Amino acid sequence: MDRETAEFYRTRAEEWAAAAQWEWNRWLDPFLDRLAPGAHILELGCGDGRDAARMIARGFSVDLSDGVPEMAALASKRIGREVPVMQFDELAAEGTYDAVYASATLLHVPLAELSGVLARIHRALVPDGLHHGSFKGGSGGGRDDFGRFYSYLSPDDLETAYRGAGEWSQLELETRDGSSFGGASAVWHTVLARK
Description:
Helix content is about 30%, strand content about 30%. The protein is α/β, with parallel strands linked by helices. It has one domain (about 5-195): Vaccinia Virus protein VP39 (Rossmann fold), CATH 3.40.50. The protein is globular, with a radius of gyration of 15 Å.
């Protein structure tokens, strides 16, 4: 995450969390429904921990992290245990997780670096492990009205990045209209990848 994007989340973490009107992400339960009971999940970019709290409530074993200390602190408060601060390029696990969940976080990674991050996710998964990622649609990188950097990606960009990260036995992409912080409309791509 670049400095300006991280600064937004450092200084506006509580405002960001308060603006999110959902209890947990709408893509979360359909993803969890594909996993075995008690599966071991890594959440990257956990934000205020609301999705992790849902995973825990459903009986999953969850490791979570965020790249911004202030966000990790909000998640720690929500789930009642310390949440580590970790950047994507610090993920070193190998064959550890049944699933890696990264909702609206990898979209801050420049396209040129995305396959490298996805390769780390691929290595972290057990054989047949599942990964969920969500991204904003569009073309090229740019900043929103709040100064956050996004890689606005096409379906072809995403498929190329995922295919360059490792062998996936399954790769599904869905596109939907949605919104973003501040109420701006956005096109969202969700990816489900099976190792």
